[in-house]
Structures are given as structure tokens and as C-alpha cells.
């Protein structure tokens, strides 16, 4: 096929001129179709067309046809033309359904007559949606086909498809995802994989007695994570509002209210940088389980991810886009942040290590942390990423984080200076995080006050004092394990794709 590129794929003036010329020709065909429309049918965009079967259903039903076989059965199918060849008295076209399945349409003089055959040649272009009716057969080359006895335009395409033999650039794929879905199997498969992942997550939660809820995306005060929010204004309330950075504080209110096992899958928004693992708008899963802790929630998270992998790949061993196999099965490692950092750095680092010692180690390693946000915990976490993160091969829970970077987490039950928090690393990036939740309202208030001081020093990601949340905690929250996981990143771990490929319509400039 030698169809012209879209404007998004074209950089030279001749190419753009070709596209505009094709559009002009197709507009003329549209006018002709509209002028020849009758009350019963026709036109460029009819309200309905004959469809008795899907292409996929016909392919499954007649999978055993031999070359040259005829079924004697008539079917009507519709699809987009992605290949076309006109050869005198017989025209061939490949019709593609939304799921990527294809069937061949054979339009012959003997079956449709001269007028209809000529109209096909003059009016039908690559990219058009058409409905064809005729006998289901297998061509002499063994291709499942419709020997067309009647056809009609279902929707006239005014712009040509990209060249199906040329790979779209990543930029074009994310900017024009509708074209990506038409021309690339992987794009459609990723959408299906995402749906399977979400369905699997819900099944697993269902099996454990969790309830799915929805919490506000517009909030009067942002919280639940260390991140810079998007700010907007409500005319109705004449107040400043924030797009939520996390649902945590509302989900914990639900736990206080007696919903002991609760989760949400929804959108979060963070006004920060975008790269291969970060998007300003992203899908997030958060879950809270009363009378559990960060060990129990780690077990649940492993089960959620492994079940999702099986739902997509049929196994806990997944195959990434580059062909690499990655094993998500088995029991995942759990390592201490401080101990693994000490081993990798070649010197002992503990919660008692002084700020000055950490600064010196960071300087020696070339790790930079802005002075306005530098704390013991920030330095430890940055040093850990420098020395340890890149060496993690298998899925790994990194346990026991510095206290001052985790204001919503319970202090460790036996190790002073750390909190019961883990981060799960898969493929070298953070996939999920889990906690033994801080439920003491007095300590929580103290933590919020410390965060407010950081905010006053210029830390845009620091939290504010949330009085409504504290009032809920003062009514009593049971011991609870909580976790958060990015759905987009879960797709990355299963498919090996970058974050913009896992989001159907990512934000682009």
C-alpha cells in the first residue's frame, strides 16, 4: 500500500501539498455521495448500514475453510479499508475491525454489476468505513473473504491513513493516538491489557472483601502525598481549589467511618515534571486494610500484581515490548533501606548518622540535594537511589524509610528513627508504596506542623495542616495497612512500555 502520510508525519511542503490535494479529491467524492443519497440508504455518513456479524466472529466460525471453499452462507460485515487493489473486473480490499481483525472483500463485475463496480472504484478510498454483504468464501489463496453482492459507504474518510508499512514515531503515536490504534497492533493490545489489569485488580480486591469507592478530585486542601498540586478556582464557591495529588486522606476518613477494606482506582494530578516514568495526570490505585500493617499490605500488593500479570500474559513471566522476559512470580525480596545503602556505599549509614556525615557522603558521590529541602531523610533516600536502585533486578520491597520524609506513616515498632514504609521497585522504577498507617492524631498533628515548616522554607511538595482529617482521626482509626500503586506504571512493568505508551491519551504540548 502506498497511501500518503498524515500532516503529523510529514515534514516537507510537497508531502503536505499531497495530503491537501487528497483531501480535496475526497471532499468531492463526499459531495457526490451526498447528492446520490436516497431516503432508504446511501450518502457519505449513513445513520446505519447492514451488519449481521463481526469480522472476528466470522474468522473464528470459518477458521477451518480450505482454499477455494464456498460456504453458501451470506453475511454482512463492516470495517475500515486498510488495503485496496483494483484490477479490472475484480477489486480486492482488506476490511479491518476495531479489534484489528481483518477480512477480505472481493467486489466483482459478475456479482455487483458494472455500475456498482465502477462506483466502488471511483468513490472508495483507503481509510473509508464500508459495509459489504455477500457469501463467505475462502479465496484461491486461502484468504477468508466476502464475495460482495452489495456494498455501501459507512463513513467517508477525508484524510488518508499513514503508510502502514512505515512505523509511526513515538511523538506521532501519542499526539494522534486514534491513528496509532488503527495502524499498530501493539497500541490496541495495550488498551486491552490495561482493561484486563483493572478487571483483575477489582477481582482480587473482591476476593478479599474490599469495597471500591470514589473520593473528591477537587479539594479545598491538597494532601496525602509530597507533591506540587495544580491549582484552580471555583466560581460557584469563590474559592481556590486543588486537583488532588492523592486520595489518601479521604480514604482514611472512610476507614474511620467503618469501611474496613477500601480502595479506589482513579486519576491523580501533580504539577511536576514529565519523563519516561512520570505524567502530570495519571491513574492511581490506593487501598487500605484495617487490622493489617505494611507486611500484610505487601503480601496483598504482590498478589494483585501477579494476578494482573496472569490476566494479561497468562503467566507471571511477562514478555516486554523489546522481547525481554521478566519474571514477576515467586516470593519477592524485602531489603532494608539503611542496610542496603550501607552495603552499597561501603560505610555504615543508620538513622543516627549525622546530617553532616550524610552531606559529606553525598558530596563524595556527586549526589546533589537542594539546601532548602535537604533533611536527613532526603539525603538518605537520594543516596540510596544513587548507590542501590540501579542494581535491583527482581521485584523488591525496600523497607523501613527515614521518619522525616514520611509524615503519614507509623514509626517502626522496634527500630528508632525509621517508619514502617516500603517502596516496591520493578524494572528499576518505583511501582508502589505501602505503610503501616499513622493513626495517632496527636503525632499526626506534630508531623503536619513539621511539614508546614518545610513549606515555609520553600518546599513546594510539603504538606499542610489538614484540620478536617485530624478531626476524623480524633474519632479513632484502627491499625491499618495502606498502599498506593500507579496503574500506568503497573502496565509498564507488565508490557515493558514507557508511560506515555500505557496511557491512551497522554498529555502532550
TrEMBL record:
It is an enzyme of class 6 (ligase). Keywords: Aminoacyl-tRNA synthetase, ATP-binding, Cytoplasm, Ligase, Magnesium, Metal-binding, Nucleotide-binding, Protein biosynthesis. It is found in: Cytoplasm. It catalyses: tRNA(Lys) + L-lysine + ATP = L-lysyl-tRNA(Lys) + AMP + diphosphate. CDD domains: LysRS_N (cd04322). GO terms for biological process: lysyl-tRNA aminoacylation. GO terms for molecular function: ATP binding; lysine-tRNA ligase activity; magnesium ion binding; tRNA binding. GO terms for cellular component: cytosol. Mg(2+) 2 binds at residue 430. Binds 3 Mg(2+) ions per subunit. Mg(2+) 1 binds at residues 423, 430. Coiled coil: none annotated. Its cofactor is Mg(2+). Pfam families: tRNA-synt_2, tRNA_anti-codon. Residues 194-506 form the Aminoacyl-transfer RNA synthetases class-II family profile domain. Its EC number is 6.1.1.6. Belongs to the class-II aminoacyl-tRNA synthetase family. Homodimer. NCBIfam families: lysS_bact, PRK00484.1. This is Lysine--tRNA ligase. The gene is lysS.
Amino acid at each position: 500500500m502506498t497511501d500518503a502520510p498524515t500532516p503529523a508525519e510529514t515534514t516537507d511542503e510537497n508531502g503536505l501539498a499531497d495530503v491537501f490535494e487528497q483531501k480535496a479529491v475526497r471532499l468531492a467524492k463526499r459531495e457526490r455521495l451526498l447528492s446520490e443519497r436516497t431516503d432508504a440508504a446511501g450518502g457519505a455518513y449513513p445513520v446505519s448500514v447492514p451488519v449481521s456479524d463481526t469480522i472476528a466472529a466470522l474468522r473464528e466460525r470459518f477458521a477451518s475453510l480450505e482454499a477455494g471453499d464456498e460456504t453458501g452462507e451470506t453475511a454482512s460485515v463492516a470495517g475500515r479499508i486498510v488495503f485496496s487493489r483494483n484490477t479490472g473486473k475484480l477489486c480486492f480490499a482488506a476490511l479491518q475491525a476495531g479489534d484489528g481483525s481483518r477480512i477480505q472483500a472481493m467486489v466483482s463485475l459478475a456479482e455487483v454489476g458494472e455500475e456498482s463496480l465502477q462506483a466502488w472504484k471511483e468513490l472508495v478510498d483507503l481509510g473509508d468505513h464500508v459495509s459489504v454483504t455477500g457469501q463467505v468464501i475462502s479465496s484461491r489463496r486461502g484468504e477468508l473473504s466476502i464475495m460482495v453482492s452489495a456494498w455501501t459507504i459507512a463513513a467517508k474518510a477525508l484524510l488518508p491513513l499513514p503508510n502502514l508499512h512505515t512505523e509511526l514515531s513515538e511523538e506521532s503515536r501519542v499526539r494522534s493516538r486514534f491513528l496509532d490504534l488503527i495502524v499498530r497492533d501493539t497500541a490496541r493490545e495495550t488498551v486491552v491489557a490495561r482493561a484486563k489489569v483493572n478487571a483483575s485488580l477489582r477481582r482480587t480486591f473482591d476476593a478479599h472483601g474490599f469495597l471500591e469507592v470514589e473520593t473528591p478530585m477537587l479539594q479545598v486542601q491538597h494532601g496525602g502525598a509530597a507533591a506540587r498540586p495544580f491549582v484552580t478556582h471555583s466560581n460557584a464557591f469563590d474559592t481556590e481549589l486543588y486537583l488532588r495529588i492523592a486520595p489518601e486522606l479521604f480514604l482514611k476518613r472512610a476507614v474511620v467511618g467503618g469501611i474496613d477494606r477500601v480502595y479506589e482506582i482513579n486519576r491523580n494530578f501533580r504539577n511536576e515534571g514529565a519523563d519516561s516514568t512520570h505524567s502530570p495526570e495519571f491513574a492511581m490505585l490506593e487501598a487500605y486494610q484495617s487490622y493489617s500493617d505494611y507486611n500484610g499490605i505487601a503480601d496483598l500488593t504482590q498478589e494483585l500484581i501477579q494476578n494482573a500479570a496472569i490476566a494479561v500474559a497468562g503467566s507471571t513471566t511477562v514478555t516486554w515490548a523489546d522481547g525481554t522476559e521478566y519474571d514477576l512470580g515467586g516470593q519477592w525480596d524485602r531489603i532494608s533501606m539503611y542496610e542496603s545503602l550501607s552495603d552499597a556505599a561501603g560505610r555504615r549509614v543508620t538513622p543516627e548518622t549525622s546530617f553532616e556525615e550524610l552531606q559529606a557522603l553525598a558530596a563524595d558521590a556527586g549526589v546533589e540535594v537542594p539546601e532548602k529541602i535537604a533533611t536527613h531523610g532526603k539525603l538518605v533516600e537520594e543516596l540510596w537511589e544513587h548507590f542501590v536502585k540501579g542494581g535491583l533486578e527482581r521485584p523488591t520491597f525496600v523497607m523501613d524509610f527515614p521518619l522525616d520524609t514520611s509524615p503519614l506513616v507509623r514509626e517502626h515498632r522496634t527500630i528508632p528513627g525509621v517508619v514502617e514504609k516500603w517502596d516496591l521497585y520493578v524494572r528499576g522504577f518505583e511501582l508502589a508504596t505501602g505503610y503501616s498507617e499513622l493513626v495517632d492524631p496527636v503525632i499526626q498533628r506534630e508531623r503536619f506542623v513539621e511539614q508546614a515548616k518545610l513549606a515555609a522554607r520553600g518546599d513546594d511538595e510539603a504538606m499542610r495542616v489538614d484540620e478536617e482529617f485530624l478531626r476524623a482521626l480524633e474519632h479513632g482509626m484502627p491499625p491499618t495497612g495502606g498502599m498506593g500503586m500507579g496503574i500506568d506504571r503497573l502496565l509498564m512493568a507488565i508490557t515493558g512500555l514507557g508511560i506515555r505508551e500505557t496511557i491512551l491519551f497522554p498529555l502532550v504540548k
